[in-house]
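Collaborator request, handled under Task 6.
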Amino acid sequence: MKRTRCGAIAVIIGAALALTGCNAIPGSGPVQVGLDNLQQAEQQVQYNPDGPAAGASQEDIVRGFVQAATSSEDNYAVAREFLAPNYASQWNPDSDVLIDDGSRPFTANEDGSGTLAVAASAKLDVDGFMLPIEPGESTNLRFELERVDDEWRISSAPNGIILDTTMFTTIWSQHQLYFVGPGETLVPETRWFMTRAALPTEIVGALLAGPGERLSEVVHSGFPTGTALVMNSVPVTDGRARIDLTGNVLEASPTAMGEIRQQLRLSLQTVQNVSGFDLTAEGTAVRFDSAEGTAEPQLVNDVTDAAVLSGDQFGTIVSGEFIAAGGFENTLGDYDPSAITLNPAGDAAALLSSGGVTRVDALGVVAIDERTGLLPPMFDRFGYIWTLQSSSAQTLQATTRDGASVQVAAPWLAGRSPVAVRLSPDGSRIAALLSDEHGSQVLVAGVVRDENGVPVRTTDEADVQLWATGAPVDLDWVGQTRFAVLTKGDSTSRVTLGGVGLLPIDQGSVQGGVHLMGGSARTQLRVLGQRGDLYASQASGWQRTATDIAVLAKRG
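Structure tokens returned to the collaborator:
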């Protein structure tokens, strides 16, 4: 078959072809041996690039090779045509993916090699974890070339592939793998997988392999250690994924079996054409019998309406109307707070004022932390109020209502002065917004707790999950894996939606934005302006929904 240029023709399997996309996985009969290398599985979005043209220059060969690597068909067979015969089998396309803007200027070197300057924004590793790349100078990728039958071929190249953002999001898709945190809470972890027929197999395999490094001490899996697929394949028939595991899955307790059920159900829910699953242990059906007194792990509840302090009244704004909140012994406005954080249930508040952090609920008022220089407090789902000083952020304090407190070490914040620090809604991650030479950055670490949810420490290291332009202003989580960042430029404040293992999205600017509330979805984002105007996210912009707001409260 004659090949056509990738940029001109792309065979994209849409709604109709997607129905046949799983034909590469057996649809009936016994489970068959799967592919030894899942990276060679059929792409459901397949490009048909050209091989090398006769008389092509060194630059043409390098650019053609990069373009050809958009197709994984037959183990990147077309891309390997650009490689010298003795190197073609050595190149490893599966090591990582660099995601860039697509410009890639080429430089021919005096020694006969060539260099591509790649302005990479993110990197995806072999396990599907994505991390952003620090802005600044381009990454220079060196390609060595030699003559083969009087034609240029590549004799050495960086492993992995390079894709621009549009191409990457066409070929790859994000999925959440679910693990279990303290308090039987389901905690998602974002992984990226190539969109292809082997996707159910890859997701189940990744679940069995367990969480990544940052969550390895934070969450657990219901699957007993050593549990594996009997065959390296998860066939799908009539929308049902058939998952046959080794016999040690039967060692799971009733509680663990409930965790396994929820992990599989939620992790597979975003896979096209998979509406459910059947679990077997070496061919024998596995039953999910709930033990008396046990409950399956659940997702955290969504945050809904924005809570604000207007004058001396505290309440929510619903459809543009202010509704005063009850349930607090004292009026929150009496404390002249500069920041308010509600607990997940919304029936207790942690207030930051000139006297420190105070807890207010229906039972009374409790002084939590009277130190100066405190950042706005956090309220986790286990009832702890978290406080920290920007000047000594490497140690956080978590305090219960009765005044018992624990010190929580955050060594990754040593020597840093964060502008805002926030816990994720499930309490499994902690994010910090800091200033850096490029403007702002967000660091995210895991929160290690005991079996009762008592915080012990954070992970020793944190990952930069976002770089943003402008000086840091505020930060909040948007659901369990995303966060929103407010930064300030010369005259406006800009909102950027980032996340753990996710590509950033520019949410536009708000004049004079000073505080931000995340909620559980982009539509729940709220920004408070310096003149007391409250803005809601609307399509590609922001709409003013209220005025005379003194404080925009956060939740959690």
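The cover message to the collaborator said: "The helical segments are 15-18, 58-68, 73-80, 165-171, 199-209, 254-267. Residues 1-41 have pLDDT under 50 and may be disordered. Please let us know whether this matches your experimental observations."
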